[in-house]
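Weekly sync, protein design subgroup
Attendees: M.S., D.O., the rotation student, P.L. (late)

Item 1: inverse folding check
M.S. brought a backbone from last month's batch and wanted to see whether the design step gives back something sensible before we order anything. D.O. pointed out we never logged the input encoding, so this time it goes straight into the notes. Structure tokens as presented (82 positions):
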């Protein structure tokens, strides 16, 4: 069974976002110390971003950016509460 640590609104956490397609590595600027990796080829390519988000407000801002740019969001995963 997975252990869950409660996350407060103003707490930093590490997240993993998976996006459809190959997104520029410049996205790492949106996540402090983010790691950008790619998987797959052609239309099956995905971009994985893993990095620290300072709080829930910043997470919603990042998700809004994804929406505004029209990048399909596959998943968002809370990796670690900091």
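Designed sequence read out in the meeting:
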């Amino acid at each position: 069974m997975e252990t869950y640590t409660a996350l407060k609104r103003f707490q930093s956490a590490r997240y993993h976002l998976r996006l459809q397609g190959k997104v520029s590595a410049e996205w790492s600027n949106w996540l402090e110390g983010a790691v950008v990796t790619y998987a797959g080829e052609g239309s099956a390519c995905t971009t994985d971003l893993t990095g620290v988000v300072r709080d829930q407000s910043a997470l919603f801002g990042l998700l809004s950016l994804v929406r505004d740019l029209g990048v399909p969001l596959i998943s968002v995963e809370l990796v670690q509460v900091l």
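Discussion: The mean pLDDT is 88. The longest strand covers residues 73-81.
Action: P.L. to compare against the previous round before Friday.
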